[in-house]
# Entry
Amino acid sequence: MSEQLHIIITRDTGKIIRFPSTWKKLRLLFAGAVLILLLLAVTSVFSISFFSKNRTFSSRLSELQQQLKVNEESMANHKIISETERLKLTSQLTAFKEEKAMMSTTVSELNERNELIEKVMDSIGISHARGKQTGTKNSGGPFIEQQETKLDDLLYRTDRYLKILQHLPLGRPVQGAISSRFGKRKDPINNKNAFHSGIDFHGKSGDKILATADGTVKRIFRNGGYGKYILIDHGNGYTTGFAHLKTYLVKKGERIKRGQVIGLVGNTGRSTGSHLHYEVALDKKPINPYKFMEIASLIKSNSGSPEKK
# Structure
Protein backbone atom coordinates (compact mmCIF):
# COMPACT_ATOMS: atom_id res chain seq x y z
CA MET A 1 0.00 0.00 0.00
CA SER A 2 1.43 3.36 -0.99
CA GLU A 3 1.81 5.96 1.84
CA GLN A 4 1.35 8.74 -0.69
CA LEU A 5 -1.61 10.98 0.18
CA HIS A 6 -3.25 13.77 -1.72
CA ILE A 7 -5.13 16.57 -0.08
CA ILE A 8 -7.63 17.99 -2.55
CA ILE A 9 -9.23 21.43 -2.13
CA THR A 10 -11.91 22.54 -4.59
CA ARG A 11 -13.20 26.07 -5.17
CA ASP A 12 -16.57 27.29 -6.29
CA THR A 13 -15.08 27.96 -9.70
CA GLY A 14 -14.37 24.27 -10.06
CA LYS A 15 -10.62 24.64 -9.74
CA ILE A 16 -8.97 21.81 -7.83
CA ILE A 17 -5.84 22.19 -5.70
CA ARG A 18 -3.89 19.08 -4.73
CA PHE A 19 -1.37 18.84 -1.90
CA PRO A 20 0.58 15.63 -2.08
CA SER A 21 1.75 14.36 1.33
CA THR A 22 2.48 11.30 3.37
CA TRP A 23 1.32 9.96 6.72
CA LYS A 24 4.69 10.65 8.19
CA LYS A 25 4.45 14.31 7.25
CA LEU A 26 0.92 14.56 8.63
CA ARG A 27 2.02 13.05 11.91
CA LEU A 28 4.93 15.51 12.14
CA LEU A 29 2.61 18.39 11.25
CA PHE A 30 0.08 17.30 13.87
CA ALA A 31 2.78 16.89 16.50
CA GLY A 32 4.10 20.36 15.64
CA ALA A 33 0.62 21.83 15.92
CA VAL A 34 0.08 20.16 19.30
CA LEU A 35 3.48 21.45 20.50
CA ILE A 36 2.66 24.97 19.37
CA LEU A 37 -0.72 24.79 21.12
CA LEU A 38 0.98 23.59 24.30
CA LEU A 39 3.51 26.40 24.09
CA LEU A 40 0.70 28.89 23.56
CA ALA A 41 -1.22 27.45 26.52
CA VAL A 42 1.82 27.57 28.82
CA THR A 43 2.63 31.09 27.66
CA SER A 44 -0.96 32.18 28.28
CA VAL A 45 -0.92 30.70 31.77
CA PHE A 46 2.34 32.49 32.63
CA SER A 47 1.04 35.70 31.09
CA ILE A 48 -2.17 35.55 33.08
CA SER A 49 -0.24 34.75 36.29
CA PHE A 50 2.23 37.57 35.63
CA PHE A 51 -0.59 40.01 34.91
CA SER A 52 -2.40 38.98 38.11
CA LYS A 53 0.76 39.35 40.19
CA ASN A 54 1.54 42.65 38.52
CA ARG A 55 -1.93 43.95 39.35
CA THR A 56 -1.50 42.73 42.97
CA PHE A 57 1.87 44.44 43.20
CA SER A 58 0.41 47.63 41.74
CA SER A 59 -2.44 47.56 44.25
CA ARG A 60 -0.02 46.91 47.12
CA LEU A 61 2.26 49.69 45.88
CA SER A 62 -0.70 52.06 45.79
CA GLU A 63 -1.63 51.05 49.34
CA LEU A 64 1.95 51.57 50.50
CA GLN A 65 2.09 54.97 48.84
CA GLN A 66 -1.20 55.92 50.50
CA GLN A 67 0.07 54.66 53.87
CA LEU A 68 3.29 56.61 53.36
CA LYS A 69 1.28 59.75 52.69
CA VAL A 70 -0.82 59.16 55.82
CA ASN A 71 2.34 58.56 57.87
CA GLU A 72 3.93 61.72 56.53
CA GLU A 73 0.81 63.71 57.42
CA SER A 74 0.74 62.06 60.85
CA MET A 75 4.40 62.89 61.41
CA ALA A 76 3.77 66.48 60.35
CA ASN A 77 0.83 66.72 62.75
CA HIS A 78 2.87 65.07 65.50
CA LYS A 79 5.64 67.57 64.91
CA ILE A 80 3.15 70.42 65.23
CA ILE A 81 1.69 68.88 68.41
CA SER A 82 5.19 68.30 69.83
CA GLU A 83 6.12 71.91 69.13
CA THR A 84 2.87 73.07 70.75
CA GLU A 85 3.54 70.89 73.80
CA ARG A 86 7.10 72.17 73.99
CA LEU A 87 5.91 75.77 73.90
CA LYS A 88 3.24 74.95 76.49
CA LEU A 89 5.79 73.33 78.83
CA THR A 90 8.17 76.25 78.31
CA SER A 91 5.38 78.67 79.18
CA GLN A 92 4.45 76.65 82.28
CA LEU A 93 8.08 76.50 83.38
CA THR A 94 8.44 80.26 82.96
CA ALA A 95 5.22 80.84 84.91
CA PHE A 96 6.43 78.46 87.63
CA LYS A 97 9.74 80.31 87.92
CA GLU A 98 7.92 83.65 88.11
CA GLU A 99 5.52 82.25 90.71
CA LYS A 100 8.45 80.88 92.72
CA ALA A 101 10.22 84.24 92.59
CA MET A 102 6.98 86.00 93.58
CA MET A 103 6.46 83.53 96.43
CA SER A 104 10.01 84.14 97.63
CA THR A 105 9.41 87.90 97.55
CA THR A 106 6.07 87.47 99.35
CA VAL A 107 7.66 85.32 102.06
CA SER A 108 10.40 87.91 102.52
CA GLU A 109 7.85 90.73 102.76
CA LEU A 110 5.71 88.73 105.21
CA ASN A 111 8.79 88.09 107.36
CA GLU A 112 9.61 91.78 107.40
CA ARG A 113 6.05 92.76 108.26
CA ASN A 114 5.77 90.10 110.95
CA GLU A 115 8.98 91.37 112.53
CA LEU A 116 7.59 94.91 112.40
CA ILE A 117 4.30 93.78 113.94
CA GLU A 118 6.16 91.90 116.68
CA LYS A 119 8.12 95.07 117.52
CA VAL A 120 4.87 97.02 117.59
CA MET A 121 3.24 94.45 119.86
CA ASP A 122 6.28 94.39 122.14
CA SER A 123 6.21 98.18 122.39
CA ILE A 124 2.65 98.14 123.75
CA GLY A 125 3.13 95.04 125.90
CA ILE A 126 1.12 92.49 123.91
CA SER A 127 2.42 88.93 123.95
CA HIS A 128 2.83 87.30 120.54
CA ALA A 129 4.02 83.87 121.75
CA ARG A 130 2.26 80.86 120.24
CA GLY A 131 -0.42 79.17 122.24
CA LYS A 132 0.74 75.92 123.85
CA GLN A 133 -1.19 72.76 124.54
CA THR A 134 -2.11 72.76 128.25
CA GLY A 135 -3.16 69.18 128.78
CA THR A 136 -3.73 65.73 127.29
CA LYS A 137 -6.60 64.41 129.45
CA ASN A 138 -9.98 63.59 127.95
CA SER A 139 -8.63 63.66 124.38
CA GLY A 140 -7.48 61.25 121.70
CA GLY A 141 -7.71 60.28 118.04
CA PRO A 142 -5.33 58.78 115.46
CA PHE A 143 -1.73 60.01 115.37
CA ILE A 144 -0.98 62.15 112.31
CA GLU A 145 2.54 63.48 112.17
CA GLN A 146 2.64 67.24 111.75
CA GLN A 147 4.20 68.38 108.48
CA GLU A 148 4.61 72.07 109.21
CA THR A 149 6.60 74.05 106.70
CA LYS A 150 8.26 77.42 107.05
CA LEU A 151 5.55 78.97 104.90
CA ASP A 152 2.78 77.40 107.04
CA ASP A 153 4.37 78.84 110.15
CA LEU A 154 4.74 82.24 108.49
CA LEU A 155 1.12 82.30 107.34
CA TYR A 156 -0.05 81.21 110.79
CA ARG A 157 1.89 84.02 112.44
CA THR A 158 0.69 86.58 109.91
CA ASP A 159 -2.95 85.54 110.28
CA ARG A 160 -2.71 85.57 114.07
CA TYR A 161 -1.05 88.99 114.18
CA LEU A 162 -3.57 90.47 111.75
CA LYS A 163 -6.43 89.27 113.92
CA ILE A 164 -4.79 90.90 116.94
CA LEU A 165 -4.05 94.17 115.10
CA GLN A 166 -7.55 94.31 113.64
CA HIS A 167 -8.88 94.69 117.19
CA LEU A 168 -6.22 97.14 118.40
CA PRO A 169 -7.29 100.83 118.37
CA LEU A 170 -4.70 102.12 115.89
CA GLY A 171 -4.72 105.40 114.01
CA ARG A 172 -6.60 108.68 114.33
CA PRO A 173 -10.38 108.94 114.81
CA VAL A 174 -10.44 112.38 113.10
CA GLN A 175 -8.08 114.41 110.92
CA GLY A 176 -8.00 117.53 113.09
CA ALA A 177 -4.90 118.76 114.95
CA ILE A 178 -4.29 117.75 118.57
CA SER A 179 -5.44 120.51 120.91
CA SER A 180 -4.73 118.77 124.24
CA ARG A 181 -2.54 115.73 124.97
CA PHE A 182 -2.83 112.83 127.41
CA GLY A 183 -1.66 113.23 131.01
CA LYS A 184 -1.10 116.22 133.29
CA ARG A 185 -2.43 119.56 132.08
CA LYS A 186 -4.11 122.79 133.11
CA ASP A 187 -7.87 122.43 133.04
CA PRO A 188 -9.16 124.57 130.12
CA ILE A 189 -12.07 125.90 132.16
CA ASN A 190 -10.80 126.51 135.74
CA ASN A 191 -7.07 126.52 134.91
CA LYS A 192 -6.29 124.09 137.75
CA ASN A 193 -3.87 121.14 137.56
CA ALA A 194 -5.70 118.09 136.25
CA PHE A 195 -5.24 114.71 134.62
CA HIS A 196 -6.39 114.36 131.00
CA SER A 197 -7.45 110.77 130.30
CA GLY A 198 -7.34 111.07 126.52
CA ILE A 199 -6.42 113.29 123.58
CA ASP A 200 -8.48 116.22 122.30
CA PHE A 201 -8.67 116.80 118.54
CA HIS A 202 -9.72 120.15 117.13
CA GLY A 203 -12.57 119.81 114.66
CA LYS A 204 -15.49 121.50 113.06
CA SER A 205 -19.00 120.69 114.17
CA GLY A 206 -20.25 117.82 111.99
CA ASP A 207 -16.81 116.36 111.11
CA LYS A 208 -16.89 112.57 110.77
CA ILE A 209 -15.53 110.40 113.60
CA LEU A 210 -14.06 107.02 112.63
CA ALA A 211 -13.71 103.83 114.65
CA THR A 212 -10.02 102.97 115.14
CA ALA A 213 -10.53 99.18 115.34
CA ASP A 214 -13.12 96.45 114.91
CA GLY A 215 -15.38 96.01 117.91
CA THR A 216 -18.86 96.22 119.42
CA VAL A 217 -20.65 99.36 120.60
CA LYS A 218 -20.91 98.84 124.35
CA ARG A 219 -22.55 102.10 125.50
CA ILE A 220 -24.19 105.19 123.97
CA PHE A 221 -25.35 107.83 126.43
CA ARG A 222 -24.96 111.40 127.67
CA ASN A 223 -22.04 111.03 130.07
CA GLY A 224 -22.04 114.12 132.26
CA GLY A 225 -19.12 116.43 131.39
CA TYR A 226 -18.27 114.18 128.43
CA GLY A 227 -21.55 115.09 126.76
CA LYS A 228 -22.76 112.67 124.10
CA TYR A 229 -20.47 109.68 124.49
CA ILE A 230 -19.77 106.36 122.68
CA LEU A 231 -17.85 103.46 124.25
CA ILE A 232 -16.60 100.65 121.98
CA ASP A 233 -15.32 97.27 123.22
CA HIS A 234 -12.55 95.80 121.02
CA GLY A 235 -11.88 92.63 123.02
CA ASN A 236 -8.70 91.59 124.88
CA GLY A 237 -9.51 94.30 127.47
CA TYR A 238 -9.26 97.23 125.02
CA THR A 239 -11.93 99.92 124.77
CA THR A 240 -12.15 103.33 123.10
CA GLY A 241 -14.25 106.30 124.18
CA PHE A 242 -15.50 109.24 122.07
CA ALA A 243 -16.88 112.33 123.85
CA HIS A 244 -18.59 115.72 123.14
CA LEU A 245 -20.34 114.31 120.02
CA LYS A 246 -22.95 116.19 118.11
CA THR A 247 -24.67 113.07 116.74
CA TYR A 248 -24.52 109.27 117.18
CA LEU A 249 -24.41 107.21 113.95
CA VAL A 250 -24.31 103.73 115.54
CA LYS A 251 -26.45 101.79 117.98
CA LYS A 252 -25.69 99.91 121.17
CA GLY A 253 -24.67 96.31 120.44
CA GLU A 254 -23.77 97.08 116.82
CA ARG A 255 -20.65 95.39 115.44
CA ILE A 256 -18.42 97.87 113.66
CA LYS A 257 -15.28 97.84 111.50
CA ARG A 258 -12.15 99.96 111.61
CA GLY A 259 -12.71 103.13 109.57
CA GLN A 260 -16.50 103.06 109.97
CA VAL A 261 -18.14 106.43 110.71
CA ILE A 262 -19.65 106.21 114.20
CA GLY A 263 -20.62 109.85 114.92
CA LEU A 264 -20.05 113.55 114.26
CA VAL A 265 -17.84 116.05 116.11
CA GLY A 266 -19.76 118.35 118.44
CA ASN A 267 -19.54 120.62 121.52
CA THR A 268 -21.74 118.81 124.05
CA GLY A 269 -20.89 118.50 127.77
CA ARG A 270 -18.10 120.38 129.53
CA SER A 271 -16.36 121.85 126.49
CA THR A 272 -14.86 125.13 125.30
CA GLY A 273 -15.51 124.51 121.59
CA SER A 274 -16.10 121.90 118.91
CA HIS A 275 -13.65 119.05 119.37
CA LEU A 276 -13.38 115.29 119.95
CA HIS A 277 -12.14 113.83 123.23
CA TYR A 278 -10.68 110.37 122.38
CA GLU A 279 -9.71 107.76 124.97
CA VAL A 280 -8.02 104.35 124.85
CA ALA A 281 -8.26 102.06 127.90
CA LEU A 282 -6.88 98.64 128.76
CA ASP A 283 -8.80 96.76 131.44
CA LYS A 284 -10.61 100.05 132.21
CA LYS A 285 -7.31 101.87 132.85
CA PRO A 286 -6.67 104.89 130.52
CA ILE A 287 -3.51 104.64 128.38
CA ASN A 288 -1.97 107.18 126.05
CA PRO A 289 -3.67 106.98 122.61
CA TYR A 290 -0.73 108.76 121.01
CA LYS A 291 1.40 105.61 121.23
CA PHE A 292 -1.18 103.76 119.13
CA MET A 293 -1.30 106.63 116.65
CA GLU A 294 2.49 106.47 116.24
CA ILE A 295 2.30 102.71 115.78
CA ALA A 296 -0.32 103.12 113.03
CA SER A 297 1.91 105.65 111.26
CA LEU A 298 4.89 103.31 111.55
CA ILE A 299 2.99 100.33 110.13
CA LYS A 300 1.51 102.44 107.32
CA SER A 301 4.89 103.84 106.27
CA ASN A 302 6.62 100.44 106.34
CA SER A 303 4.01 97.99 105.16
CA GLY A 304 0.72 99.70 104.42
CA SER A 305 -2.18 100.41 106.70
CA PRO A 306 -3.09 97.51 108.99
CA GLU A 307 -6.68 97.35 107.87
CA LYS A 308 -5.50 96.49 104.38
CA LYS A 309 -3.24 93.68 105.46
Summary: The domain at 178-288 is CATH 2.70.70.10 (Glucose Permease (Domain IIA)). The two ends are 141 Å apart (CA to CA).
